[in-house]
Amino acid sequence: MSDWHPATVTARTPAADGLTDLVLDIQGTPLVGTHAHPGQYVRLRLPGQEAGLFAIASPPEPQGGRWEFLLKDGSPLPDALIRLPLGAQVQVSAPEGPGFPLERARGHDLLLFATGSGISAIRPVIASVRRERDAFGRVKLYFGARTPGAFAYQDELHAWEDGGIQVVRTVSQPGASGWQGLTGYVQAHLGEEPLHDALAFVCGQAGMVRGVMEALSERGVPATRVFFNY
Fold first, then answer.
1. How do 5-16 and 89-92 pair as beta strands?
2. DSSP conformation letters of 142-181
3. From 33-47, 99-113, 193-207, the region with the lowest mean pLDDT
4. What is the model's pTM?
5. Domains of the chain and any CATH numbers
6. Is-contact 52 44, C-beta < 8 A?
7. pLDDT band with cut points at 50, 70 and 90 for residue 1
8. Do the beta carbons of residue 137 and residue 197 sit within 8 Å?
9. Coil, helix or strand for 48?
C-alpha cells in the first residue's frame, strides 16, 4: 500500500494537443528529496477516483519542492486533474520504480526513445545529462508523435540541441498538416551510425517498445543494453 501525502497544484499549462503540464508543490512533506532517479513515477489520487501512475517529468533535485507531470487527456483521473483549480490538493505517493540507470550510461553513447506522453519520463534524463554533458558520448533523442501538434516541450527542443542532445522528430499521422519533417515510427530513423557502444532508454506504448527493441537488436544492440523506467 502507498503512503499518501498532500501536494498543491501550483501551475497548469497546455503542453501540446491533448497534453497538459501540471506542477505540484510537495514542500513540507516527506516527499522532498525522494525523487532519486530520472524516469521514476508516482501514484496520484483524488477523492472518488482510482489512483494512477504518472512519471515525474522534472529532474531529481536533492531538495526539490516541486514535481512536474505530463497529463494525457481522455481518461477519468487525468481529466479530473486537469480541471483542478490552482491551490487544490492532490494525494501523492513516494516515487517508485528504478528509473533509468544513468550511471551505467556514463562514458557511452546514449539513445533515447519516446513517443507521445512517454517524453515525460525521458525529459528528466535529458536534464540530468545536460548537467554533466561531457560524461556521456553521443546522445540522441528519437521523439515521435501522431501529429505535428502533439509534441510536448517544443519550446525546450532548441535548448536540448544547444546542450548537445541531437533531436530527431517524426510524425506517424501527418495528414494534411503540411508537416515537412520525418514521418513514420521512431525506430525507422536510426540512421547508419555505429551503435556498438550505445545504451538505449525507452518509454512509450507496448507496440513502440517492441519495434524499438527489434530495430536495435538488428543493429547489434543487445537487450541487456536497453532499459525501461519500470
1. antiparallel
2. EEEESSGGG-TTGGGHHHHHHTT-EEEEEES--TTS---S
3. 193-207
4. 0.95
5. 5-92 (2.40.30.10), 102-227 (3.40.50.80)
6. yes
7. very low
8. yes
9. coil
